[in-house]
Amino acid sequence: MTEGTRGARGPRSSSSAPVILDIEDFKGDFSFDALFGNLVNDLLPSFLEEEADSGDGHGNIDGLANGHLRGGQSDASRFSQVSSAPFFPEVDGLLSLFKDSCKELIDLRKQVDGRLNTLKKEVSTQDAKHRKTLTEIEKGVDGLFESFARLDGRISSVGQTAAKIGDHLQSADAQRETASQTIELIKYLMEFNGSPGDLMELSALFSDDSRVAEAASIAQKLRSFAEEDIGRQGAAGNATPGRGLEVAVANLQDYCNELENRLLSRFDAASQRRDLSTMSECAKILSQFNRGTSAMQHYVATRPMFIDVEVMNSDIRLVLGDDGSQPSPSNVARGLASLYKQITDTVRKEAATITAVFPAPNEVMAILVQRVLEQRVTGILDKILVKPSLSSPPPVQEGGLLLYLRMFAVAYEKTQELAKDLRAVGCGDLDVEDLTESLFSSHKDEYPEHERASLKQLYQAKMEELRAESQGSESSGTIGRSKGASISSSQQQIAVTVVTEFVRWSEEAISRCTLLSSQPATLAANVKAIFTCLLDQVSVYITEGLERARDGLSEAAGLRERFVLGTLSRRVAAAAASAAEAAAAAGESSFKAFMVAVQRCGSSVAIVQQYFANSISRLLLPVDGAHAASCEEMSTALSKAEVAAYKGLQQCIETVISEVERLLSAEQMATDYKSPDDGFSPDHRPTNACIRVVAYLSRVLESAFTALEGLNKQAFLTELGNRLDKLLLTHWQKFTFNPSGGLRLKRDINEYGDFVKRFSVPSVEEKFELLGIMANVFIVAPESLATLFEGSPSIRKDAQRFIQLREDYKSAKLATRLSSLWPSLS
To answer: Is residue 63 domain-resident?
Structure first.
């Protein structure tokens, strides 16, 4: 109910039952609080005013609570007021209002339910009508689709018919056009059917310069037709085709030749003027003659770089220089780089013109690049690369085979770079890399032989140089040798720098081999051959060096044998002793020289092995078995040097032992171990012979300690230590010992033992320790000999020989006493 409606209504009573609620009150934004307020506002105006006045709180005024009045009046007055009038007089009106409202709500609900039922019926009726309409529409749509399908079928049929008609019309038009062209061609063909060579009666088309393209096209068609007709007649068995066609073909050929020459002349004139438009027009027309091959070849052949002799001379001067002397590879490399840059720039400029002129520029570029490589590049390569003879190679002083190989590598590398640059500029379908390879094919076929021959030539020249240096120093070395100086001069020694030079030659050869060998298998084979040359060179060089050092040892041995001291007069003996000292000095010098040779030999072998591991082995892997074969060759080649080194080390041991024996014989006195003043305090110093021997060994073996390494050093020192032990045993058996002499012998043995400890060979150290134990047989009393070797039964046999050297051996009857104690030794 709206505000206006509610405001018009007056007080209600239960008898009148006025309309209180309206269905419109429940529409829109319905609020129960608002509805209730509108119902009771007319009955409770004073309540609303009191409620408004009490908005400030509950300070001094009490409201209603639970139906009782609270306030500031006395109880008596309140009671009297309540008794005289009702507490809430609007209750009855509100109850009546609420009852009427409930009735009206029930009525409204019934009205709404009725209207809902009516609406449901109406909706059901409309839905049935709608469904019926949809069904009818669907039937209509299906029919419409069927109509459209029939219409589409008819349209397709009509379209196909129209297309067939169009095809027939187009075919008919094409036939008409072909017939028209055929009539024209027959007419032109009859013009060429005149007398042979008679081209004067032709149509204006064939002489009009403005219609050259059309004339060329028609002439080519006529020629093709006539040639095909002659071919068909020949295939059919008619050996004498019609004369008219033969005349036509001949006249057409003459005309085409004349037209092609005329176009080429026009093309040349336009080329001189740089008239690219005319050149392009001519090239397009000429493309109808043999696909334009003559035009393309003619254009390339008339380029200045192919016909100007001065260009070729300029190329040679740029690369080889003007002075006429032999150019160096570095100068040739710079010259080729400059020349090839000029060629690339020229080709790039020509490519721009070719692209603008020719309808098939790639084909022209292929012809141009091929001509550049086959004429201009080949011309300069022939001047640079003059293949030397292997039977009579040029001397090393003039560069030898190495100069040719270096020129070859430089030319090949620079030409390969040129090929890449030309490929980048453009060369059509031409395989420029393969063509470039073909330029060097004759040189590459014999390259491995030239490389090996060059290495051999370098080795021979180096050996001749070393021999010349050695011979130059022989005159000064003769005097030195006469005074006991070194047998082998320093120039004859193995030089690590020489082996390093061999390796450097091989490295350079391998770098060329890598550049020139495109296939991995070919590269591996060439690398293996080059490395084999290096192995042969190193093997021969170090083996000969070791043999020369051995010759020094043999010469020193010969000197020792010449001056062996014998029973001579005092004057002759003094001279012989002096010569023996000189021979000893020569032996010591040759020993040190051989050790230096061994050390340098080891360093050289290490250089070769390192070079193989770092540079060669990876290049051999692509071929099965190549790596193992090279390792076997290296082992075989170096085994010759190992044999020479082994023999020389044996000679070194002989030299040392011979000198030790000489020193012992010359310096060891009988009184060293049998002092006449045995009762006095013993001399604890080593004997003079011992001091001389140890000093000699310390001096001479210093070079062995430095030169030898690993197992070689251990084997050499073991052999030397065993020989020294055996020599000392033999030497001491020449003397008789008293107790003080035994102490001095023990001092000598300790001196020798301290020295051999530097060998770091346990077996040798043990031998000298046993010598020290055996020396005790000269020191202890006779009755203590039996217990002396209880802990060392293995040396009793040697000890028995030592015991026999005691001064009191016979007087103390030691033989009888020991035979009863050691029956196994008797």
So the answer is: no
Distance of CA 756 to the CA centre of its chain: 54
Of 473 and 537, which is predicted with more confidence?
A: 537
pLDDT of res. 413: 94
C-alpha torsion sign, points 772, 775, 781, 786: positive
- Smallest Cα–Cα separation from 812: which of 792, 784, 782? 782
Same domain for 97 and 140?
A: yes
Percent of the chain having pLDDT more than 70?
Answer: 74
Residues 6+ positions from 599 with CB-CB distance below 8 Å: 706, 707, 708
370 and 415 assigned to the same domain: yes
Same domain, 678 and 807: yes
Residue-wise pLDDT tens digits, 170-198: 887 777 777 766 666 666 655 555 555 55
- Same domain for 716 and 597? no
CA nearest to 244, candidates 225, 260, 258: 225
**Does some domain include residue 375?**
yes
Residue 68, H or E segment: strand 68-69
Q: Is the pLDDT of residue 253 over 80?
A: no
Instruction: Give, rounded to a whole angstrom, the gap between the first and last alpha carbons of the chain.
Output: 159
Instruction: Give 108-129 pLDDT, tens digit per residue.
Output: 888 888 889 999 999 999 998 9
Residue with tokens 């908005």: 55
Burial of residue 114, with CB atoms counted within 10 A of its CB: 0-12 exposed, 13-18 middle, 19 or more buried: exposed
CATH number for position 731? 1.20.58
Q: Which candidate, 751, 789, 791, places its Cα nearest to that of 768?
A: 751
Asked if 796 and 770 touch (Cβ cutoff 8 Å), the reply is no
CA distances from 463 to 336, 495, 499 (A): 35, 12, 12
Provide the token pair at 135.
């069904």
The separation between CA 474 and the C-alpha centre of its own chain, rounded to angstroms, equals 53
* DSSP tag of 411: H
Within 686-738, residue ranges assigned H as helices are 688-707, 710-732
For 423, phi then psi, to 5°, come to -60, -40
Q: Among candidates 787, 789, 783, which has minimal Cα distance to 801?
A: 789
The verdict on residue 238 lying in a domain is: no
Helix axes 276-286, 293-301, angle to 10 degrees: 140
| Domain membership of residue 685 as a residue range | 668-821
Q: Is 117 part of any domain? A: yes
Tokens of 152: 């589409």
Indicate if 339 and 434 belong to the same structural domain: yes
Residue given tokens 């120039």 in the structure block: 491
DSSP state of 737: B
Q: Which residues of 292-310 are buried (b: 16+ CB within 10 A; e: fewer)?
A: beebbebbbeebebeeeee
Q: What whole-number distance in Å separates Cα of residue 490 and Cα of residue 473?
A: 9
- How many structural domains does the chain have? 5
- Whether residues 442 and 311 share a domain: the answer is yes
Distance CA 457, CA 463 (A): 10
Residues 338 and 258 in one domain: no
Same domain, 250 and 298: yes
